[in-house]
Amino acid sequence: MEINSTHSHAHNRLSVGGLLIALGIIYGDIGTSPLYVMKAIILSGGNIINQDLVYGGVSCVFWTITLQTSVKYVLLTLQADNNGEGGIFSLYTLVRRRAKWLIIPAIIGGSALLADGVITPPISVSSAIEGLRIINPDIPTVPIVITIITLLFVAQSFGTQIVGKAFGPVMFIWFAMLAVLGMHSIFSHPEVLQAANPLYAYRLLAEYPGGFWLLGGVFLCTTGAEALYSDLGHCGRDNIRVSWLFVKLCLLLNYFGQAAWLMQHAGESVSDKVNPFYGLMPDWFLLTGIGIATLAAIIASQALITGSFTLIGEAIRLNLWPRVRLRYPTMVKGQLYVPSVNLLLWAGCVAVVLYFRESENMEAAYGLAITVTMLATTVLMVYYLKLRKVSKVLIGLFLAVYLTIEGSFLVANLIKFPHGGWVSVAICMALVTVMYIWLRAFFIKRRLTDEVPLDRYVDALKELSEDQSIPKYATHLIYMTGAERRNYIESKVIYSIFQKRPKRADIYWFLHVYTTDEPYTMEYKVHHIVPNDVIKVDFRLGFRVEQRINLYFRKVVENLVENKEVDITSRYESLSKQKAVGDFRFVVLEKYLSPENDLPWQENLVMRAHYNIKDLTASEDKWFGLDTSSVKVEKVPLIINPVKEIELKRVI
After folding, report:
1. Where are the alpha helices (DSSP H) in 563-594?
2. Across residues 248-266, what is the average pLDDT?
3. What does the alpha-carbon distance between residue 183 and residue 188 come to, in Å, rounded to a whole number?
4. Alpha-helix residue ranges (DSSP H) falling in 12-131
5. Residue 348 neighbours by CB distance under 10 Å
6. CA-CA-CA-CA dihedral for 250, 165, 156, 367, to nearest 10
7. Angle ∠(171,306,223) on CA atoms, nearest 5
8. C-alpha torsion sign, points 393, 394, 398, 399
9. Beta-carbon contacts of residue 558 (< 8 Å; ≥ 6 apart)
């Protein structure tokens, strides 16, 4: 049986509105790269403008965007959608049955992408705000950057649909401006278009002094590609692919336009001139251009923020992250907001701004982590292509091409490590540690969780229900159970009913929630263990469905009453005459690590870290969306491995 879903799929279909939302949500990072890519290449290449450096640099940018963003992500990776959802964890869900070890690249790649989300907003906003120094060299940028970032994170609570509609028109103007400025500059030096020949890129990397290490700057033009895939569920594949045609054209026109402008200043030092991006602007347009660039750079952080929410939601479903509260600001499919992650990202971004202060310093920390994510995606894509029965020759070609490209980018970015790259690596390792702890603790608990047949306790439950000497606890007593098998429940539930405090009730309900690999499944099954006395309900909910068990259970009860499968009338004699509905009470059992455990030191360390982190997250009743006025939370000891031998001597 299905529970009605209110999610809308309309925004995923190709439409003008969908294209506008895509522009506003996912292209900020890639779209604002012209602000700093060409300048970074020239500065890294000796700071003197020459044809080999300019033509080679823009050629590398052209082929990086084409091979990395267009071919790998837009054409290939977007096909690996899990019922419309994207991202590295969604991709892992599709292929995890192929090999258990694939969880390793999934964890590393997801952590690296989240770490990069802490660097993207500061560098994007700082790059734009620092453009105001052309007008006022003494303007204090740090307070302005922190204020803008704070407002951006506050806006997340309204949902990405609202943000996308607000930002979409701005980004359309931004990309149109990029194209117009680029074309105007190309007309003054049309020869620059020959740099599309990959020979120029090869000469730069193979023959130019230190040319290979320039890939660290080149890579900045494609850092937003992974977020593009993560935001698949927010915009839909068709909207992303069609809008990318427009975005790519505008970006390339601007990059070649900057190259044309640079060639008009050959032999000069780029530091003696303004940023080549602003060099394209006529004086009368400079103030307007800086304003539009500032707005676009503010929007640039949106792709990583929404992608981070998606990643965390999927990580929770994969038992890689604590059960933090998820919110759905709108009724539109894919609109997810994670308050705790929003707060953590904001704090991280503010810390990065205060530590680095200048965007030039942030570039050293930018891009290193995301190369790891791209390599992880490549590994998972190989298994996805195998799953789709793609030719082994084509799979081998895909693997060879992208391991070479991304491996080269990774090596080139390693020189950033001592100059700030260690910041993103440290954040990544911290996130990997949390995910490892949560996954390892899950398997430790599951390995030794004691489940018992419910049938064995049916008679005892009926006797307890009829025992007038025990005060009635509730008319309907509902337990959340993790036991997946139909007629099984955890022994801790039996302990709570019979030993913790005898709980007499008229009807005992046991609810189990199974999270499916599909994002929006909403189904349930009812098992009448003892008709009208002991009932188990199994919910099958998609990994993107909000946990609102209180609401779903009420819907199930209404359905059962309508079908005359259960009588919820109060069994108190005075209330029964009035046809009053009996009271419902949930019992949620929260485990704590018992001091009686005798675990190996590694597992003991993992479990203690697990419960320390859990103390900072939402309680079980809040996670399941239960009505707190009718919930009893009980602490039960988790004795994973009790001490087996106790030497205790009696003395007289």
Report:
1. 573-577
2. 93
3. 9
4. 16-26, 28-31, 37-44, 51-64, 88-95, 103-129
5. 19
6. -10
7. 70
8. negative
9. none
| Distances 467 to 95, 457, 494, 503, 583 between C-alpha atoms, Å | 52, 15, 17, 10, 19
Distance CA(325)–CA(425), nearest Å, equals 27
Residue 58 has pLDDT above 80, yes or no: yes
CA distances from 267 to 195, 244, 270, 635 (A): 19, 35, 9, 73
Give exposure, 216-246, as e/b (b: 16+ Cβ within 10 Å).
bbbbbbbbbbbbbbbbbbbbbbbbbeebbeb
Q: Which residues contact 637 (CB under 8 A, 6 or more apart)?
A: 591, 592, 593, 594, 596
3-class DSSP state of 102: helix
Rounded Cα distance, 147 and 167, in Å: 18
Angle CA(239)–CA(245)–CA(246) in degrees, nearest 5?
A: 95
- pTM (predicted TM-score): 0.80
Query: Could you write out the DSSP letters of every residue in 185-213?
Result: HHHH-GGGGGGGSHHHHHHHHHTSTTGGG
Beta strands at 451-453 and 488-490: parallel, antiparallel or unpaired: antiparallel
352-355 long-range Cβ contacts below 8 angstroms, 24+ apart: 352/118, 352/119, 352/122, 352/423, 353/122, 353/126, 353/142, 353/145, 353/146, 353/149, 354/142, 354/146, 355/423
Report DSSP letters for 514-559, one per residue: EEESSTT-EEEEEEEEETTTEEEEEEEEETTS---HHHHHHHHHHH
In DSSP terms, which residues pair with 585 in a beta bridge? 477
pLDDT of residue 645: 61
Average pLDDT estimate for 591-607: 73
**Chain segment 387-441, per-residue pLDDT in tens:** 888 899 999 999 999 999 999 998 888 887 887 778 888 888 999 999 999 898 8
Joined tokens for residue 648 = 């205790």
User: Which one, of 517, 520, 475, 479, lies nearest residue 497 by Cα?
Assistant: 479
Residue 188 to residues 182, 184, 263: CA-CA distances in angstroms? 10, 7, 10
Residue-wise pLDDT for 478-522, tens only, equals 888 888 777 888 888 888 888 777 888 888 999 988 887 677 788
| Helix, coil or strand: residue 376 | helix
What single-letter amino acid sits at 85?
Answer: E
Q: What is the 3-state secondary structure (H, E, C) of 234-267?
A: HHCHHHHHHHHHHHHHHHHHHHHHHHHHHHCCCC
Residue 571's contacts (CB-CB under 8 Å, 6 or more residues apart) are 475, 506, 582
Closest among 252, 245, 262 to 196, alpha carbons compared: 252
How far is 536 from 530, CA to CA, in rounded Å?
Answer: 10
Question: Strand 472-480's sheet: what is its strand order?
Answer: 522-530, 534-542, 504-516, 472-480, 584-593, 631-638
